[in-house]
Amino acid sequence: MALYSIVIPVYNSAKGLPLLYERISKEFDEVIKENFELILVDDCSKDDSYKVICQLREKDPRVKGVQLAVNHGQQKAVMCGFSYVSGDYIITMDDDLQHPPEEIPKLIEKMNSSDDIDIVIGAYAQKKHGPIKKFGSKLMNMTSNMIYGKAHSLKLTSFRLIKRYVIDNLNGISISRPTIGPLLLQTTKRIVNVTVQHDDRQYGKSGYSFFKLCRAFFDNMITNSDLPLKAVGWVGALSMLGSVILIIKFLLDYFIKGTSFVGWTSTIILVLFFGGVILFSIGILGRYLTSIMLETKKYPKYLVRREDLNK
Questions:
Q1: Beta-sheet strand order (sheet of 119-124)
Q2: Residue in 168, 38, 165, 19 with CA at minimum distance from that of residue 93
Q3: Category of 310 on φ-ψ map: left (φ > 0), alpha (ψ -120 to 50) or beta
Q4: Which of 17, 96, 219, 228 is 20 to 30 A from 266 (CA-CA)?
Q5: Is 116 exposed, middle or buried (0-12, 13-18, 19+ CB in 10 A)?
Q6: Over the stretch 143-168, which tens digit does the pLDDT of each residue have?
Q7: Under CATH, which number does the domain 3-208+300-308 receive?
Q8: pTM for the full model?
Q9: What 3-state class would DSSP assign to 160?
Q10: Dihedral sign from CA coordinates of 13, 19, 22, 25
């Protein structure tokens, strides 16, 4: 029998964890009939999430609990969970019950349909996310299309079934700001979708604000691509070309027509525009320098405070 490692990042989900565990265990015991281990990574929750995890572990030895010392965010919490897996296949899903455990058989069936598949990603028939998270998902998919040549038809979500060798390769990558979707695209091209149901969130609210999603978008761009630098370079080149054209025009107007360029407002607008471009460019360079600094300092990807494992 195959062993499935289910990695779930947990944040303020004390109310929903018992139901999530019950539905997962029921699905594997009664429907899938394969072995599983449940790795719950508490991302420094403010509620009793880790206490609930420990209670579940005492009830079922297949549950493993890991508590992070500080809040690292969903991506690093999942990466932390990857370092504890022992299964042949790894499943990633959210803790908010929007990924129904009853849909896991669809992922498994798709994986078993061909030896040429390394990753199966659940594509939602209808998203139940809020407008902010939907917007963030579109940004991430757009950047993945541009940077990695991802097919437009391929949808990236956090509901995945992954072969073990892919996770072993990811664990060998040292990066200060990991984004799992793009890392998977760099690891293998044998990725397919299967349509799954996406349920409403039953407890709490999403931790993704508009600011966090924008930050994740820019981190993804800067960590994995030089596209922002290229964009700034093109803006500079086009601005220089435009200024040369204007200079030639003004010189011709002056010598042929005897007119001169007058306009305080236009001058101020140009100064403000190019001043903004310069400051924006400096900000992008600063983000790259910060990323380089973090990589050279070799900070740990995550800080584990406590482990409750069944060894």
A1: 191-196, 119-124, 160-163, 89-92, 3-10, 35-42, 63-68, 304-308
A2: 38
A3: beta
A4: 228
A5: exposed
A6: 666 666 677 788 889 999 999 999 99
A7: 3.90.550.10
A8: 0.76
A9: strand
A10: negative
